[in-house]
Amino acid sequence: MTPTLVRQHPPRTGAAPRVDLRARARDWSEIQERMLVPLYEAVYERLDVGPTTRLLGLGCGSGLALLMAASRGAAVTGVDACADRLALARERLLPDERDARVRDDIRIVRGSPGEAARADAYTVVTAFEPIGCLAGDAERLGGLLAEAVPLAGRGAAVVLTGWGPPERCATASVLRAAAGPAEPLRGGTGAWRPTDRDDLERVAARAGLWPDGSGRVACPFGYADADSAVRGLKSTGLFDPAVMATDQAQVDKELAEALHPYQRQDGTVWMPNVFRYLVARVA
Protein backbone atom coordinates (compact mmCIF):
# COMPACT_ATOMS: atom_id res chain seq x y z
CA MET A 1 0.00 0.00 0.00
CA THR A 2 1.34 3.44 -0.90
CA PRO A 3 2.09 5.55 2.22
CA THR A 4 -0.12 8.58 2.77
CA LEU A 5 1.74 11.85 2.30
CA VAL A 6 0.42 14.94 4.05
CA ARG A 7 1.37 18.44 2.96
CA GLN A 8 1.98 20.74 5.92
CA HIS A 9 2.00 24.54 6.06
CA PRO A 10 4.34 25.99 3.45
CA PRO A 11 7.83 27.00 4.59
CA ARG A 12 9.14 30.50 4.12
CA THR A 13 11.06 29.50 0.98
CA GLY A 14 11.08 26.54 -1.39
CA ALA A 15 8.56 23.73 -1.75
CA ALA A 16 6.22 22.81 1.07
CA PRO A 17 7.52 19.90 3.18
CA ARG A 18 5.74 16.59 2.95
CA VAL A 19 5.59 14.20 5.89
CA ASP A 20 4.98 10.47 5.59
CA LEU A 21 2.82 10.12 8.67
CA ARG A 22 2.88 6.33 8.61
CA ALA A 23 6.66 6.27 8.57
CA ARG A 24 6.76 8.86 11.35
CA ALA A 25 4.38 6.80 13.48
CA ARG A 26 6.52 3.71 12.90
CA ASP A 27 9.67 5.62 13.88
CA TRP A 28 7.93 6.75 17.06
CA SER A 29 6.86 3.20 17.89
CA GLU A 30 10.13 1.46 17.01
CA ILE A 31 12.70 4.08 18.03
CA GLN A 32 11.46 6.85 20.29
CA GLU A 33 8.58 5.69 22.45
CA ARG A 34 10.68 3.33 24.57
CA MET A 35 12.83 6.22 25.81
CA LEU A 36 10.13 7.14 28.32
CA VAL A 37 9.69 3.62 29.76
CA PRO A 38 11.43 4.56 33.06
CA LEU A 39 8.89 7.38 33.45
CA TYR A 40 5.95 5.06 32.85
CA GLU A 41 7.31 2.51 35.31
CA ALA A 42 7.96 5.09 38.03
CA VAL A 43 4.44 6.51 37.77
CA TYR A 44 2.73 3.12 37.73
CA GLU A 45 4.74 1.95 40.71
CA ARG A 46 3.98 5.11 42.69
CA LEU A 47 0.24 4.86 41.99
CA ASP A 48 0.14 1.08 42.44
CA VAL A 49 -1.52 0.63 39.06
CA GLY A 50 -3.12 -2.80 38.96
CA PRO A 51 -6.37 -4.78 38.57
CA THR A 52 -8.51 -2.12 40.29
CA THR A 53 -7.21 0.69 38.08
CA ARG A 54 -9.28 2.24 35.30
CA LEU A 55 -6.76 4.27 33.32
CA LEU A 56 -7.25 6.91 30.65
CA GLY A 57 -4.14 7.67 28.61
CA LEU A 58 -4.20 11.08 26.88
CA GLY A 59 -2.11 11.23 23.73
CA CYS A 60 -1.55 7.48 24.01
CA GLY A 61 0.35 7.30 20.72
CA SER A 62 1.25 3.76 19.67
CA GLY A 63 0.23 2.37 23.04
CA LEU A 64 3.38 1.25 24.86
CA ALA A 65 2.39 2.93 28.13
CA LEU A 66 -1.09 1.42 27.84
CA LEU A 67 0.40 -2.02 27.23
CA MET A 68 2.53 -1.70 30.37
CA ALA A 69 -0.51 -0.72 32.45
CA ALA A 70 -2.61 -3.53 30.96
CA SER A 71 0.16 -6.02 31.82
CA ARG A 72 -0.31 -4.95 35.46
CA GLY A 73 -4.01 -5.83 35.22
CA ALA A 74 -5.42 -2.34 34.65
CA ALA A 75 -8.38 -1.60 32.40
CA VAL A 76 -7.03 0.92 29.91
CA THR A 77 -8.46 3.42 27.45
CA GLY A 78 -6.17 5.31 25.12
CA VAL A 79 -7.16 8.42 23.19
CA ASP A 80 -5.20 10.18 20.46
CA ALA A 81 -5.88 12.20 17.33
CA CYS A 82 -3.26 10.45 15.17
CA ALA A 83 -4.79 7.59 13.21
CA ASP A 84 -1.42 6.11 12.24
CA ARG A 85 -0.15 5.88 15.81
CA LEU A 86 -3.48 4.46 16.98
CA ALA A 87 -3.30 1.75 14.30
CA LEU A 88 -0.03 0.62 15.87
CA ALA A 89 -1.60 0.78 19.34
CA ARG A 90 -4.38 -1.53 18.18
CA GLU A 91 -1.83 -3.96 16.77
CA ARG A 92 -0.19 -4.09 20.19
CA LEU A 93 -3.25 -4.24 22.41
CA LEU A 94 -6.03 -5.63 20.23
CA PRO A 95 -4.39 -7.75 17.53
CA ASP A 96 -7.61 -9.77 17.13
CA GLU A 97 -10.32 -7.60 15.55
CA ARG A 98 -12.96 -9.62 17.42
CA ASP A 99 -11.44 -8.45 20.73
CA ALA A 100 -11.71 -4.84 19.61
CA ARG A 101 -15.47 -5.24 19.25
CA VAL A 102 -16.22 -6.98 22.56
CA ARG A 103 -13.56 -6.03 25.12
CA ASP A 104 -14.22 -3.22 27.55
CA ASP A 105 -10.97 -3.49 29.53
CA ILE A 106 -8.91 -2.27 26.55
CA ARG A 107 -10.24 0.56 24.40
CA ILE A 108 -8.51 2.67 21.72
CA VAL A 109 -10.33 5.89 20.82
CA ARG A 110 -9.51 8.30 18.02
CA GLY A 111 -10.51 11.85 18.75
CA SER A 112 -10.80 13.96 21.88
CA PRO A 113 -10.89 12.82 25.53
CA GLY A 114 -14.60 13.61 25.69
CA GLU A 115 -15.21 10.66 23.38
CA ALA A 116 -13.60 8.24 25.85
CA ALA A 117 -16.33 8.31 28.52
CA ARG A 118 -17.15 4.99 30.14
CA ALA A 119 -19.74 3.79 32.63
CA ASP A 120 -17.26 3.68 35.51
CA ALA A 121 -15.22 6.79 36.26
CA TYR A 122 -11.48 6.63 35.61
CA THR A 123 -9.22 6.28 38.63
CA VAL A 124 -6.02 7.38 36.84
CA VAL A 125 -5.51 9.81 33.97
CA THR A 126 -2.06 10.09 32.40
CA ALA A 127 -0.60 12.73 30.09
CA PHE A 128 2.80 11.24 29.30
CA GLU A 129 3.68 13.62 26.47
CA PRO A 130 6.10 15.97 28.25
CA ILE A 131 5.47 19.69 28.11
CA GLY A 132 7.99 22.47 28.60
CA CYS A 133 9.84 22.96 25.32
CA LEU A 134 7.32 24.43 22.89
CA ALA A 135 5.17 27.53 23.22
CA GLY A 136 1.53 26.60 23.59
CA ASP A 137 2.10 23.06 24.88
CA ALA A 138 0.74 23.89 28.35
CA GLU A 139 -2.39 25.39 26.81
CA ARG A 140 -2.91 22.32 24.64
CA LEU A 141 -2.59 20.07 27.68
CA GLY A 142 -5.07 22.27 29.53
CA GLY A 143 -7.57 21.75 26.74
CA LEU A 144 -7.23 17.98 27.00
CA LEU A 145 -7.67 18.09 30.77
CA ALA A 146 -10.82 20.20 30.46
CA GLU A 147 -12.44 17.21 28.73
CA ALA A 148 -10.71 14.42 30.63
CA VAL A 149 -11.07 15.52 34.27
CA PRO A 150 -14.91 15.26 34.28
CA LEU A 151 -14.52 11.61 33.27
CA ALA A 152 -12.48 10.81 36.38
CA GLY A 153 -13.82 10.06 39.83
CA ARG A 154 -13.29 12.21 42.88
CA GLY A 155 -9.76 11.71 44.22
CA ALA A 156 -8.57 10.18 40.95
CA ALA A 157 -4.90 10.69 40.13
CA VAL A 158 -4.04 12.86 37.14
CA VAL A 159 -0.41 12.58 36.06
CA LEU A 160 1.22 15.45 34.19
CA THR A 161 4.76 15.20 32.82
CA GLY A 162 7.34 17.69 31.67
CA TRP A 163 10.96 18.12 30.68
CA GLY A 164 13.38 18.56 33.55
CA PRO A 165 15.81 21.46 34.01
CA PRO A 166 17.59 22.27 30.71
CA GLU A 167 20.99 21.72 32.32
CA ARG A 168 19.96 18.12 33.04
CA CYS A 169 18.36 17.42 29.65
CA ALA A 170 20.84 17.00 26.82
CA THR A 171 17.99 16.69 24.36
CA ALA A 172 16.73 20.15 25.31
CA SER A 173 19.98 21.65 24.04
CA VAL A 174 19.68 19.64 20.83
CA LEU A 175 16.14 20.91 20.38
CA ARG A 176 17.23 24.48 20.98
CA ALA A 177 20.09 24.23 18.49
CA ALA A 178 18.08 22.51 15.78
CA ALA A 179 15.17 24.92 16.26
CA GLY A 180 17.36 27.82 15.15
CA PRO A 181 15.86 27.86 11.63
CA ALA A 182 12.44 28.51 13.21
CA GLU A 183 13.58 31.84 14.69
CA PRO A 184 11.06 33.81 12.58
CA LEU A 185 8.29 31.81 14.23
CA ARG A 186 9.49 32.51 17.76
CA GLY A 187 6.68 33.54 20.06
CA GLY A 188 4.03 31.67 18.13
CA THR A 189 2.50 28.33 18.98
CA GLY A 190 5.08 25.58 18.51
CA ALA A 191 8.15 27.83 18.84
CA TRP A 192 10.88 26.67 21.18
CA ARG A 193 10.80 28.01 24.74
CA PRO A 194 12.85 27.27 27.87
CA THR A 195 11.36 24.95 30.47
CA ASP A 196 9.76 26.60 33.49
CA ARG A 197 9.93 24.74 36.81
CA ASP A 198 6.28 25.57 37.62
CA ASP A 199 4.76 24.51 34.28
CA LEU A 200 3.01 21.43 35.64
CA GLU A 201 1.68 23.13 38.76
CA ARG A 202 0.15 25.93 36.71
CA VAL A 203 -1.58 23.49 34.37
CA ALA A 204 -2.94 21.52 37.33
CA ALA A 205 -4.23 24.65 39.04
CA ARG A 206 -6.03 25.83 35.90
CA ALA A 207 -7.68 22.42 35.61
CA GLY A 208 -8.97 22.62 39.19
CA LEU A 209 -6.66 19.84 40.43
CA TRP A 210 -4.76 19.79 43.71
CA PRO A 211 -1.13 18.61 43.76
CA ASP A 212 -0.29 15.40 45.59
CA GLY A 213 3.42 14.91 45.05
CA SER A 214 5.94 14.88 42.26
CA GLY A 215 9.09 13.11 41.17
CA ARG A 216 11.97 13.13 38.74
CA VAL A 217 13.01 10.22 36.55
CA ALA A 218 16.15 9.72 34.47
CA CYS A 219 15.21 8.87 30.88
CA PRO A 220 18.36 8.77 28.74
CA PHE A 221 17.82 8.80 24.99
CA GLY A 222 19.99 6.17 23.35
CA TYR A 223 20.18 5.36 19.63
CA ALA A 224 22.06 2.85 17.52
CA ASP A 225 23.41 5.58 15.24
CA ALA A 226 22.92 9.19 14.22
CA ASP A 227 20.33 8.33 11.55
CA SER A 228 18.17 6.54 14.13
CA ALA A 229 18.53 9.53 16.45
CA VAL A 230 17.39 11.96 13.77
CA ARG A 231 14.43 9.78 12.81
CA GLY A 232 13.43 9.19 16.42
CA LEU A 233 13.61 12.82 17.44
CA LYS A 234 11.71 14.02 14.37
CA SER A 235 8.96 11.52 15.14
CA THR A 236 8.13 13.55 18.27
CA GLY A 237 6.94 16.47 16.16
CA LEU A 238 9.09 18.88 18.18
CA PHE A 239 10.97 19.95 15.06
CA ASP A 240 7.94 20.64 12.88
CA PRO A 241 8.06 24.44 13.45
CA ALA A 242 11.63 24.51 12.14
CA VAL A 243 10.61 22.43 9.11
CA MET A 244 7.80 24.86 8.34
CA ALA A 245 10.18 27.81 8.66
CA THR A 246 12.81 26.37 6.30
CA ASP A 247 12.81 22.88 4.85
CA GLN A 248 13.33 19.27 5.86
CA ALA A 249 16.91 19.05 4.56
CA GLN A 250 18.01 22.09 6.54
CA VAL A 251 16.46 20.78 9.76
CA ASP A 252 18.06 17.36 9.24
CA LYS A 253 21.43 19.07 8.84
CA GLU A 254 21.00 21.24 11.93
CA LEU A 255 19.79 18.27 13.97
CA ALA A 256 22.69 16.05 12.91
CA GLU A 257 25.18 18.77 13.86
CA ALA A 258 23.49 19.30 17.24
CA LEU A 259 23.71 15.56 17.94
CA HIS A 260 27.41 15.34 17.14
CA PRO A 261 28.65 16.02 20.72
CA TYR A 262 26.57 13.09 21.96
CA GLN A 263 27.80 10.55 19.42
CA ARG A 264 30.23 7.97 20.81
CA GLN A 265 33.20 6.42 19.07
CA ASP A 266 31.17 3.32 18.19
CA GLY A 267 28.59 5.53 16.41
CA THR A 268 25.87 5.25 19.04
CA VAL A 269 24.19 8.39 20.36
CA TRP A 270 23.58 8.85 24.09
CA MET A 271 21.85 11.84 25.70
CA PRO A 272 21.11 11.91 29.44
CA ASN A 273 17.76 13.47 30.35
CA VAL A 274 15.64 13.99 33.43
CA PHE A 275 11.87 14.25 33.25
CA ARG A 276 9.52 15.47 35.95
CA TYR A 277 6.03 14.25 36.77
CA LEU A 278 3.32 15.73 38.96
CA VAL A 279 0.56 13.69 40.56
CA ALA A 280 -2.56 15.82 40.99
CA ARG A 281 -5.96 14.83 42.33
CA VAL A 282 -9.52 15.47 41.19
CA ALA A 283 -11.38 17.49 43.78
From TrEMBL:
Keywords: Methyltransferase, Transferase. It holds the Pfam family Methyltransf_11. Residues 56-106 form the Methyltransferase type domain. One of its GO terms (molecular function) is S-adenosylmethionine-dependent methyltransferase activity. The keyword Transferase applies. InterPro entries: Methyltransf_11 (IPR013216), SAM-dependent_MTases_sf (IPR029063). The keyword 4Fe-4S does not apply. One of its GO terms (biological process) is methylation. This is Methyltransferase type 11.
